[in-house]
Write a structure and sequence with these properties.
single chain, alpha/beta, six-stranded parallel β-sheet, globular
Length: 222
């Protein structure tokens, strides 16, 4: 089976491990990693959701190699949300391996500003308030930037993610999930979170590496 694995740099180790397991099982994997790029400003939510260079590379590889399936590792957090749509548009079955925190939280950890685990993933006002809070060790503004953002926000200039941008983010992630023929998560907790934005019938729990289970899933899509 020819498998195109598309992943951002942060998932390079997972992509390499999956490719190695597939090769050992007699399959023909190809890996297309996103090129390293500068991390966008935290307030520019949309810049974390696309990667035109990677999208073009994946499109070219699909056209050149005609894979049996495309497996995308990651969604949001630097991995383009358009990769599942590209695969579907080119007529290739696509599976999406998702980390719930990366997909559902702009800060990437599903921890509320209060320090409690976050289970509300579709409330942009709540997310915007969290993203405007300075929390050491987390993605987001520092203490000075957070204080300045409170002032500039009243003047109509946002230094932290606006609710509308986070609503658009949620919709973009949902679109990527809908375009995938199947969605793979590591555990039941991740599945429960994703059901807020993903079709339940497509979300499957397959703890990594689960290579044999992935191959069986791909065979049902061909």
């Amino acid at each position: 089976m020819r498998v195109l694995i598309a992943a951002a740099q942060r998932h390079a180790a997972r992509a390499a491990a999956l490719a190695s397991h597939l090769s050992a099982a007699g399959h023909d994997p190809m890996v297309v990693l996103a090129a390293p790029r500068r991390t966008p400003a935290f307030r520019k939510v949309g810049r974390f959701l696309d990667d035109p260079v990677h999208e073009r590379a994946v499109t070219a590889e699909i056209r050149a190699k005609d894979p049996d399936v495309v497996h995308v590792i990651g969604c949001g957090g630097g991995t383009s949300v358009h990769l599942t749509w590209i695969a579907r548009a080119l007529g290739v079955p696509c599976t999406l391996e998702v980390e719930a925190a990366e997909a559902l939280c702009h800060r990437g950890d599903l921890v509320h500003a209060s320090g409690a685990p976050c289970t509300v993933v579709d409330d942009p006002e709540r997310c915007a308030a969290c993203c405007a809070t300075a929390t050491p060790g987390r993605a987001g503004p520092g203490a000075f930037a957070a204080a300045l953002a409170r002032v500039t926000g009243r003047l109509g200039f946002a230094l932290t993610p606006a609710p509308l941008a986070l609503r658009n983010r949620c919709d973009a992630i949902a679109g990527a999930l809908v375009d995938a023929h199947a969605i793979v998560v590591a555990d039941d907790a991740a599945r429960a979170l994703l059901l807020a934005v993903a079709p339940a019938a497509r979300v499957q729990v397959l703890p990594a590496p689960a290579t044999a289970a992935l191959v069986e899933l791909w065979r049902t899509l061909r």
